[in-house]
Backbone:
């Protein structure tokens, strides 16, 4: 019990000491590898499959099962799509978990983890993963490496987590103390999905550990972003323009290129500060870090704020009128040219070659 | 929260909020940072107040302007207090530095323990901080403090609507699919990010005053935290090796004329890098 200014309120998170969750003994084993599943409206996020694919490698190496931990409501379809990717699925399916909150999810995961600590617990470095994992790690008194861009495991189960520091100016290989699980959140597109795992998961339903319905914090709703495009952190391909695009309405040509490539559209701090684009599409230090397979920058000079956000993209293309633009130092392919000519021509060329593929 | 009835009319209730903002001084985004050895970095001596923390200070000041009360800026650092001075210059009422030799080498969880140890018996209503510090970019301390204090938190907020601090308030946070709208009651902790507000630039006079402002220093004994909970030996994580960022091969400039260059680019993306 915490007393604040004369008001008494029960710690919303810590379980009462007398509370023992009914977990059937022998079902959850210690030293497994767990992946926290992110899903939305019955669809598993791509990054979860990436993590399960990496987890399968780790599980082979250290010889322990790979389990997906799945919380939510009405999850039959989700279970079906996960089944080929895991040995076990721990399923906490309850209407009170329909909306994610860190409080509801951590209080329902913590007892399971405490009873039989997995050796590794992986999650995605998303708005959910980076919300849940630090709270859970503090509760469990264990180590947590956020926003990793690489993971390796030794045969003795020791995880090595590679992560950027200072916005990506340097990287660090982090190792964990003896506390378990070793927790990490990982960026999108860090691992490839292995479609040939051919597992068939044993589904283990677990009852709600604690009903979060009385919690004060509640999700009221989601105001969905306009359009159907993936968030820039999730997209395989991101095309972006900076101030060089001259006016907000000119983003239309970039949207058309994005449609041809099934890409998402990013931007720089300058255009966000001008009010041309939404903050959620800003790449860079005060915006988002992206790990796209292909990133194309048009009319972007290459300020350090921006290029720090694209350091882990696989292939980078830069187009700018200034042959001395810094962005070329961070690109694989460069064209000195006018984006107003290049972008529409590129869209047409891509449409042509993609049509020829069919 | 102290409620002060104004003019005997119960509708006009002035609420005094206790607001704490967790701040940190970090290398400027322009600072050169290099790997010196496996275990050491070379950091250019160019620091600024973590940008996201300034947004948190601004949010705190706005709440104070609306409801009255006090904004205290708080840092855990043995050397750098400029973030506290920035907070004062922006308009914070009080500044507190938690400093102790045994904190050296602490991880984010130990920093959170120090902050929570200080805050636990304070009459806080609202705790604010940045979504992450622009040095370790971890985003652990805010959520960990909330966990230790047993209060709800909302991460990465871009909107905060509060009409009455004693009732439910509305916060908006950015998620991949759009904007998530949540309700919550105080006390709570929010981590702030760009889009929430534009931090004010302090006036020169206030900057001068902040230079001379008194900063309260507290050590571990003063906040009631054991040295065993902090420092290198308590850390849950350690750096095994620093690495330079992965280097890209030198750029290949496509020098052919338009529109040939576009055709070549598409060919390279398909046949060489195989990304489309």
Residues:
């Amino acid at each position: 019990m915490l007393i604040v200014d004369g008001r008494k309120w029960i710690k919303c998170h810590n379980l009462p000491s007398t509370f023992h969750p009914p977990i059937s003994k022998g079902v959850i084993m210690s030293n497994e590898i767990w992946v926290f599943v992110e899903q939305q409206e019955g669809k598993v996020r791509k990054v979860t499959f990436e993590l399960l694919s990496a987890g399968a490698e780790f599980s082979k190496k250290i010889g322990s099962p790979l389990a997906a931990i799945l919380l939510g409501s009405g999850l039959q379809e989700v279970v079906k799509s996960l089944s080929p990717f895991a040995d076990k699925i721990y399923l906490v399916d309850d209407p009170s978990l329909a909306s994610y909150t860190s409080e509801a999810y951590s209080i329902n995961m913590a007892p399971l983890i405490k009873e039989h600590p997995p050796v590794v617990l992986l999650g995605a470095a998303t708005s959910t993963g980076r919300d849940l994992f630090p709270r859970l790690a503090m509760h469990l008194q264990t180590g947590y490496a956020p926003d990793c861009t690489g993971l390796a495991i030794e045969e003795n189960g020791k995880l090595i987590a590679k992560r950027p520091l200072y916005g990506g100016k340097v990287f660090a290989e982090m190792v964990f103390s003896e506390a378990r699980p070793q927790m990490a959140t990982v960026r999108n597109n860090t691992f490839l999905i292995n479609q040939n795992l051919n597992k068939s998961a044993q589904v283990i339903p677990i009852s709600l550990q604690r009903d979060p319905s009385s919690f004060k914090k509640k999700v009221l709703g989601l105001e969905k972003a306009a359009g159907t495009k993936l968030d820039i952190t999730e997209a395989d391909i991101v095309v972006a323009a900076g101030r060089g695009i001259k006016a907000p309405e000119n983003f239309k040509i970039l949207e058309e290129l994005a449609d041809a490539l099934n890409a998402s559209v990013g931007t720089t701090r300058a255009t966000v500060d001008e009010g041309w684009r939404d903050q959620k599409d800003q790449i860079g230090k005060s915006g988002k870090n992206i790990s796209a397979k292909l990133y194309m920058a048009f009319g972007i000079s290459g300020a350090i704020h921006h290029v720090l956000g694209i350091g882990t993209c696989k292939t980078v293309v830069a187009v700018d009128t200034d042959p001395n633009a810094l962005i070329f130092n961070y690109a694989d392919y460069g064209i000195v040219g006018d984006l107003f000519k290049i972008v529409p021509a590129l869209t047409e060329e891509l449409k042509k070659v993609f049509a020829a593929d069919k | 929260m102290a409620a002060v009835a104004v003019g005997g009319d119960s509708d006009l209730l002035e609420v005094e909020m206790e607001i704490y903002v967790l701040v940190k001084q970090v290398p400027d985004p322009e600072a050169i940072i290099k790997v010196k050895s496996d275990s050491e970095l070379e950091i250019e001596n160019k620091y600024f107040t973590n940008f996201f923390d300034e947004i948190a200070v601004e949010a705190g000041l706005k709440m104070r302007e609306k409801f009255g009360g006090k904004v205290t800026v708080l840092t855990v650092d043995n050397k750098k207090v400029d973030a506290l001075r920035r907070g004062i210059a922006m308009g914070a009422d009080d500044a507190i530095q938690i400093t102790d030799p045994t904190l050296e080498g602490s991880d984010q969880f130990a920093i959170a323990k120090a902050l929570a140890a200080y805050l636990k018996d304070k009459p806080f209503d609202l705790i604010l901080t940045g979504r992450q510090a622009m040095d370790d970019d971890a985003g652990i301390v805010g959520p960990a403090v909330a966990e230790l204090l047993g209060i709800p938190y909302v991460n990465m907020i871009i909107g905060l609507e509060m009409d009455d601090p004693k009732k439910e308030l509305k916060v908006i946070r950015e998620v991949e699919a759009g904007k998530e709208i949540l309700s919550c009651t105080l006390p709570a902790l929010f981590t702030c990010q760009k889009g929430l507000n534009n931090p004010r630039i302090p006036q020169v006079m206030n900057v001068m005053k902040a230079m001379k402002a008194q900063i309260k220093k507290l050590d571990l004994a003063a906040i009631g935290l054991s040295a065993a909970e902090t420092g290198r030996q308590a850390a849950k994580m350690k750096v095994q090796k620093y690495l330079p960022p992965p280097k890209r091969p030198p750029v290949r400039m496509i020098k052919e004329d338009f529109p040939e260059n576009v055709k070549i680019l598409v060919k390279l993306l398909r046949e060489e890098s195989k990304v489309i």
About this structure: The helical segments of chain B are 51-67, 82-90, 108-119, 141-149, 204-212, 220-223, 260-271. The longest strand of chain B covers residues 13-22.
